[in-house]
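Handout, section 4.2: multi-component inputs.
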Amino acid sequence: MTGSESTFGVSTHKGILMALDEVNKAGGVKGKKIQLKNYDDQGQASEAVTIVTKLITQDKVSLLLGEVASSRSIAAGAVAQQYKVPMVSPSSTNPKVTQVGDYIFRVCFIDPFQGSVMARFAINNLKLKKAAVFRDIKADYSVGLANFFVDEYKKMGGEVVADVSYASGDMDFKSQLTSIKGKNPDVLFVPGYYTEVGLVARQARELGLKAVLLGGDGWDSEKLTEIGGDAVVGGYFSNHYSHEDQSPVVQNFVAQFKARYGEVPSGLAAQGYDAAMVAVDAMKRASELSPKAFREALAQTKNFQGVTGMITINEERNAVKPAVVLKVVGPQKFSYVTTINP
Amino acid sequence: MKVFQSAILIAVVGILYSVNYLLEDMVNPYVIRVIVNCGIGMILAMSLNLVNGCAGQFSLGHAGFMAVGAYTSATLTTVLALSPFFKTDVGVGCAIVTGGVAAALAGYLVGLPSLRLKGDYLAIVTLGFGEIIRIIFLNIEDVGGARGLPGIPPRANFFWVYLWVVITFMALLRLLRSSYGRAILSVRENEIAAESMGVDISKYKIVAFVVSSFFAGIAGGLFAHFQSFIDPNSFVFNKSVEAVIMVVMGGMGSLSGAIFGGIIVTLLPELLRVFEQYRMVIFPLILIILMLVRPMGLFGHKEIWELFKKKASS
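Output:
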């Protein structure tokens, strides 16, 4: 809960804490209260490994919740797998995380899924059938999103008129954008991180490119509108959850969270909450209270109603669940548009 | 004498090997993990002590050399993995030594231009180099980039790490007692006097720096093959500072002090885990108090056995 992504860890912890308090108040699992052991890894993979070893061998936990960041989840996952204790990551989206072994699960969707979500959104909701893709070739994340976008878009009858790339850290995108403009696309899919996206948007508008901008959760930062200004307004991106979602589950969660902590829950808090709830649900269904039984139950999680949507765990131990689409409406304001099911 | 020494060596290896066996059977894996981390800390502290304590230079880039050792050895055993040989104990051992050599080479390249500087300037230059090395690994996709490199064969256990602790200790002790060591110490005491006595200052500074980098690389290689996962985040500036704290706490220039420093700085944060989020408030507090009480570090310039000798004679 310290280190470079400390706000992520703190938010997640709040979500988990709230979930477990609720469960324990309602009587716990099979008459037993759940005990939470929490350690801080300072954002260090080596610390995460030490802590997971301690949790498993000394504190004898039977289920692990964490880590937030993919690199730490991969490191810690290897230890969990070795001792055969199930681990549920709330928000590590890199596909490699659950490939560590059959005891590693996650309750968030993986990077590539967002690509197909945005393709469907462009065709079904926006009814735009000519797309250009502008990907960051240096980021796994961006390449994954772009590939799945192109596949799904073509499958649904759309046409990808241009597929060009940049490298994160670039400042000038005009040459690529000019070539995109020549193809005259309706939508421009930029699955990068907010810094480059902001600059791309600005330069696209300067060149007179009118296509609707689309992106993934890498856009989710207040810096996006700071860098991109008016140019990014009107763009859409996929995300894990929106506190504006009007469904009762979400509104109920938001109200409770506000009452407890006095702040609007971030996406990470919602995912922390869901990770804990999915774990508890599996514990309840497990044939006995052992890590092995928990693993079996987790693998069979189906249509679990979480705050971030219906969660089903597939055979790769990833969550199959809906994504929300948000629209950039103004400085640091994103509004909820729709939910897209897998 | 030769026979006697080899007998001791064999005895040490035997003892370490049997302790390793006993530990794995009887002690909780978490405790073993902490003990091994202490060992890696000791190697790190002893190697930095040669530059910061004995040669009197102030290096702040130790994590960078550790990173070179870690990534070089892990590349050999995991990314390239040319033959199954590299997954065996001996193969990993070779890879770790190669990592040490690569770190020594990096130390030579960094040391050559920067050791002309003194004091604060040298600290800043080494700090910069440490960061550069880390950023380079951050940008090499083949070794995982920011995501890190998983799946390194976990071959470094208690036995191997503590074998290297003994090797490092013996090598540095002998170095310090040789003419090289005396020359290095003279550089610390008074550069001008040393130079006027015909000591080639630059040469001995570089010798100290290269040897120190070599063992830092070894520590990095052991770290990689013990954690079985490395990422550039493991070798941030903080890690260099940690190494400096170990040396300063143990006493600048004291080899046994560095060992104790390595143990304390690794062990203390683990013991303080019960305090949860206040851990990183209490730990520095203890360091501050220790420095106020013993500004010269636990042992000062002296070795632990010298301290006892003095007590006995007085």
